Amino acid sequence: MDSCVVIWNLKPQTKAYRFVGHQDAVMCVQFSPSGNLLASGSRDQTVRLWIPNMKGESAVFKAHKASVRSVHFSSDGQLLVTASDDKTIKVWTVHKQKFLFSLNLHVNWVRCAKFSPDGKLIVSSSDDKTVRIWDHSTRECVHSFYEPTGFISYLDFHPSGVCIAAVSTDKTVKVWDIRTHQLLQSYQIHNTGVNSLSFHASGNYLITASSDSTLKVLNLLEGKLLYTIHGHQGPATCVAFSRSGEFFASGSTDKQVSTEEYLIYRYSSIGYEHLFSLKLISSSCLSHFILQTVTILDQRLSITEDRVKEVLENQRVIIHTYNQLFGGHRN
């Protein structure tokens, strides 16, 4: 199985980097805050830290006893938290990849784990239908939320660090205040399960991706749906705003026609603009669910999946299309 990490710089004439190392499907990726490292987690139970350049050098360590579903850097880039199907959350130093401690109260797969912006808390979600908030210094669970009607697919901290948002297989999007433990907002805006979310840098907007093929943009200040975006044909599996908030990207998989598609948009206070799409035709149908993550860091796009041959073969076409769209313009 060709299980790789591919990085694209969206400026014209720039080649893709193809990193080979994982022995099974790549489940998650994240750039460090500085952009100098890229972490990836895999079904091969390992985590790799890549230097995002042509050499593609990486450090690898056996992180868990089952698939690694989530990797996330602390805001200072010194620590990494990982989550796994082995029901554990682990915290590591980025330098020398030293294991620090494990959080073990979940009783089913852990789908996601994130540091708070100030690094004092860790939030996690699991197929045991709980969201847990952990004190980083004491390593204790300080609060938990139970969601009886569905599994939490993904969650993240608000940029202020005082709230968390979570999306679920029960079609809901929820925002909690972690100081009072109160549910602040609840939305049922999708027709099927919700797979991913991302906060805008301002903290005023939240975007979600759902198996109903749509993206939804919420205005959190007014508590209302702002936009519904219908660009995908298959389930929308992931979405992310860029750090600046100027762009967002989403990914989807259509198993019926073996197509994987990524859409890139520009976002502003007056609306959004579709820039271009990357559509990949797989050589055969996927027999299992592949978690695909699209992340924009300024103008860098990373795509994670276990079928990347088509990306490299079609790179010339993509760059040509980009040049036609933007006329060689560089930000």
Automatic annotation (TrEMBL):
| WD repeat spans | 19-50, 61-102, 103-144, 145-186, 187-228, 229-257
Gene3D superfamilies named among the record's database cross-references = YVTN repeat-like/Quinoprotein amine dehydrogenase
Q: One GO BP annotation here?
A: cilium assembly
User: According to its UniProt record, where is this protein located?
Assistant: Cytoplasm, Cytoskeleton, Cilium basal body
Database matches in InterPro entries:
WD40/YVTN_repeat-like_dom_sf, WD40_PAC1, WD40_repeat_CS, WD40_repeat_dom_sf, WD40_rpt, WDR55/POC1
Domain of life of the organism encoding this protein: Eukaryota
One Gene Ontology cellular component term attached to this UniProt record is: ciliary basal body
Q: Which UniProt keywords apply?
A: Coiled coil, Repeat, WD repeat
Entry-linked PROSITE patterns: WD_REPEATS_1, WD_REPEATS_2, WD_REPEATS_REGION
Q: Which SMART domains match?
A: WD40
PANTHER family in the cross-refs: POC1 CENTRIOLAR PROTEIN HOMOLOG A, WD REPEAT-CONTAINING PROTEIN 55
Q: Which family does it belong to?
A: Belongs to the WD repeat POC1 family.
* Full protein name: POC1 centriolar protein homolog A
Q: Which organism is it from?
A: Ornithorhynchus anatinus (Duckbill platypus)
Encoding gene, per UniProt annotation: POC1A
